[in-house]
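Might you be able to consider the sequence and fold that I enclose below?
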Amino acid sequence: MLAYVTLGSNDIPKALEFYDALLAEVGAKRAFDNGRLYFYGTGPGQPMVAVGGPYDEKSASCGNGVMAALAAPDKETVDKVYAKAMELGATDEGGPGQRMPIFYGAYFRDPDGNKLCVCKLG
């Protein structure tokens, strides 16, 4: 069900050094990055861990920069889940759209303020 989890860092080089070594122990390696987030995975279609700075450019903390991402089988499902979240009282954090050539996603916060993403990878 999860696509990836984001872990915030205030020292990206140190975090990458740590996660390069740590995640290699479970067969994961850096798969790609967008200049802010560095994604680790074990292969196509498998859950990933992303490490990087928070989108709002504030300091990372246990909450700021942490986000759960839900995998969707297609773009239509991303759109449907995002619409349902809005219907249920979620707050918009970025509507559905193509973010990178291999990433279509939407962002929202649940009524408690937890940030989530629903995405189609690949």
